[in-house]
Every structure is written in structure tokens, then in C-alpha cells.
């Protein structure tokens, strides 16, 4: 039976969460009784004052509230609000970094990648296809460097396990190599299969940055320069960028992958040394699948952090997409891609 002491203990633990939910609702009469821009602005000021005084959110997070609420509540448009912080496109870049850091911090991207690679297949060729595809898709939303860094540990673990099972080599075997001698890692030369995995991942990260406007800082730099120089233009929309660049991204990525398969893995040359090096059969696929399963087991169950970050990421993408979708009325003109991002 729940006692008053239990309730007080729960309040002592969760009072910040309760305050974040209840306080904004309690302040609604401020502008509901007199719905003018001035009273809506007062609502935001009092809301921030309460959050600042009690520090229920980090002070820097509370300071970002006007960027979301001022345009949404019709108090001030996005560009004027953003200029109090940075330029409009700079704020979008900061928002992209925040989402990317949250995804990396909770390892949500690694969990998704491991599941997807197991689903696609675990032969050398399928594994490479899965890795470049996932790196490309992830790099659409986070930086190229972060996307590459995410995949490197997965590649290292899989290749090392295959080598341990005698189903491949990470580094080339030197002539007259003494198996007991200590080898300087800096002097080792990677095999062509290893080079295919690492180079393909780097290519995929760079190519994936083309697909989404937040995928690379250079995309947002173009957006900022374009909208500054051509003030009367409709601007660079999230949806239009996707429509124009995702087909280009795919058209560049998969011919690149086919060329790398031909050059490094003997595609179309079944009798070549490269093709024989990746022919590990069912045993190799089982080894790879076991490595991926072990890494997933090490990660444990899906954490609350991963769930919340996943929901926030989907929410951000939906808000971007629905701002000006084309088939229906989107967000008002004074709300831009910078505002509808949960920064």
C-alpha cells in the first residue's frame, strides 16, 4: 500500500520532471485570458524565470527556449530570434550537432547498425554492402567523421574474428614471416579486403553527407550564403534538398561500391586472388553473425536514453518534413527549419 512517505520520496526524486510538466500548464492563463504577443512573451519570460531559478533544466538549455517558442507562438520570427544567438543557418548547424552527440552518447546508431548488418547478410560482400549503406544513411544525419568513427570498431571486431578463425587476414603475410616474432603494427600492410572495408566506409560517409541538409557543415554553409545573398528567394528547404540530393547520393554510392568490389574483391573475376580471398563459405558467415550477436549482447537491453533519443530524432525529422511538405499546408512562413528542430 502506498503511504504518504512513499509519495514524498517519489516527489523528492522526480520533482524536477513534475515541475517541467506542471509549471508551463499552470502559466497558461497568462496569455489565454488576453492572447496578445506581449502576453505570450510574458508567458515565455516567466516560464524561463522559473526554470532558471530552480535549475530544473541546464541553464544553457533554458536559454534556448525563445528560439523554439518565440516563432511558434507568433512573438518574433525565426530569423530575428536566431540573430540574438547566431545566424539562422548556424543555429540549424548547432541543432544538428546536439542531435548527433545525443545519438553517439547513447550508442543508438551502433545498435541499429548491428541489427541491420545481421539482417542484410554476413558474407564479405554482403557485409561490405551493409556497412557502406548504413554509413551512408547515418551520415545523412550526423557528421561524416562521426559516422566513420561509428563503423570502425564494428569492422575491426568482425575482421579480427574472421582472422582468428582462419577465414581471412587483416594484414598481408610477409615472406619468411616468423609467427613468434613481434611485429610493429606501423609496418604492417592491410590486405585488399581490409582496404575495401575501410576506404568504402570513408567514401560512404562523405557521400551520405550529400543526402540531407544537416548531414554536413558545408550544406548548411551553402544554405546560409544563398539565403543571405538572395533574400527574396524561397530559401533552401529540407524537403527540396532531400528530393534533389538523395537520388544523387544513391547514384554516386552504389556505382562506387560496385567499382570497389571489382577492384578489391574480384567481382566479375571469380578465379582471381581477390575473389578467392573473400570466399569464406557458410562457416565465415556464421562467425560474423556470432561476432555481431556478441556485440549486441554486450550492449544489453534497449535503454531509456536510447528510446528517448530515438523518439526525439523521429520527431525532429517529421517536423522538418511537415514544415513545407507540398501535399498539404505546412508550418507558417515565420517558422523555418531552425525553429522546428528540438534543439
Automatic annotation (TrEMBL):
Which parts pass through the membrane?
12-32, 44-70, 90-108, 129-155, 197-222, 242-264, 302-322
- Which keywords, in A-to-Z order, does the entry hold? Membrane, Transmembrane, Transmembrane helix
GO cellular component assignments: plasma membrane
Q: Which domain of life is it from?
A: Eukaryota
Q: How does it sit in the membrane?
A: Multi-pass membrane protein
Q: Could you tell me one molecular function GO term of this UniProt entry?
A: succinate transmembrane transporter activity
What is the annotated localization of this protein?
Membrane
Give the protein name, as stated in the record. Protein I'm not dead yet
- The UniProt record lists the keyword Transmembrane: yes
The similarity annotation says: Belongs to the SLC13A/DASS transporter (TC 2.A.47) family. NADC subfamily.
InterPro entries from the UniProt entry: SLC13A/DASS
Amino acid at each position: 500500500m502506498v503511504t504518504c512517505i512513499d509519495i514524498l520520496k517519489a516527489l523528492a526524486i522526480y520533482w524536477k520532471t513534475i515541475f517541467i510538466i506542471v509549471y508551463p500548464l499552470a502559466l497558461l492563463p497568462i496569455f489565454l485570458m488576453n492572447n496578445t504577443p506581449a502576453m505570450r512573451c510574458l508567458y515565455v519570460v516567466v516560464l524561463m524565470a522559473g526554470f532558471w531559478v530552480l535549475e530544473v533544466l541546464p541553464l544553457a538549455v533554458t536559454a534556448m527556449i525563445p528560439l523554439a517558442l518565440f516563432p511558434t507562438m507568433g512573438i518574433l520570427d525565426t530569423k530575428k530570434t536566431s540573430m540574438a544567438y547566431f545566424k539562422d543557418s548556424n543555429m540549424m548547424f548547432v541543432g544538428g550537432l546536439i542531435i548527433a552527440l545525443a545519438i553517439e552518447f547513447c550508442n543508438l546508431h551502433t545498435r541499429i547498425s548491428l541489427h541491420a548488418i545481421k539482417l542484410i547478410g554476413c558474407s564479405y560482400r554482403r557485409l561490405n554492402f551493409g556497412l557502406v549503406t548504413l554509413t551512408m544513411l547515418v551520415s545523412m544525419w550526423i557528421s561524416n567523421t562521426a559516422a566513420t568513427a561509428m563503423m570502425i570498431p564494428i569492422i575491426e571486431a568482425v575482421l579480427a574474428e574472421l582472422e582468428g578463425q582462419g577465414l581471412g587476414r587483416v594484414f598481408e603475410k610477409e615472406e619468411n614471416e616468423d609467427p613468434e616474432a613481434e611485429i610493429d603494427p606501423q609496418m604492417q600492410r592491410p590486405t585488399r579486403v581490409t582496404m575495401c572495408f575501410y576506404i568504402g566506409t570513408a567514401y560512404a560517409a562523405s557521400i551520405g553527407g550529400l543526402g540531407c541538409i544537416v548531414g554536413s557543415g558545408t550544406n548548411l554553409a551553402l544554405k546560409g550564403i544563398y539565403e543571405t545573398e538572395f533574400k527574396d528567394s524561397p530559401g533552401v528547404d529540407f524537403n527540396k534538398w532531400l528530393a534533389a540530393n538523395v537520388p544523387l547520393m544513391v547514384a554516386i554510392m552504389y556505382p562506387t561500391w560496385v567499382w570497389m568490389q571489382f577492384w578489391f574483391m574480384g567481382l566479375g573475376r571469380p578465379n582471381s586472388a581477390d575473389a578467392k580471398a573473400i570466399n569464406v563459405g557458410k562457416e565465415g558467415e556464421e562467425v560474423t553473425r556470432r561476432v555481431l550477436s556478441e556485440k549486441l549482447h554486450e550492449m544489453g537491453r534497449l535503454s531509456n536514453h536510447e528510446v528517448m533519443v530515438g523518439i526525439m530524432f523521429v520527431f525532429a525529422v517529421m517536423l522538418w518534413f511537415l514544415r513545407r511538405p507540398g501535399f498539404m499546408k505546412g508550418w507558417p512562413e515565420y517558422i523555418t527549419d531552425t525553429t522546428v528542430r528540438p534543439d
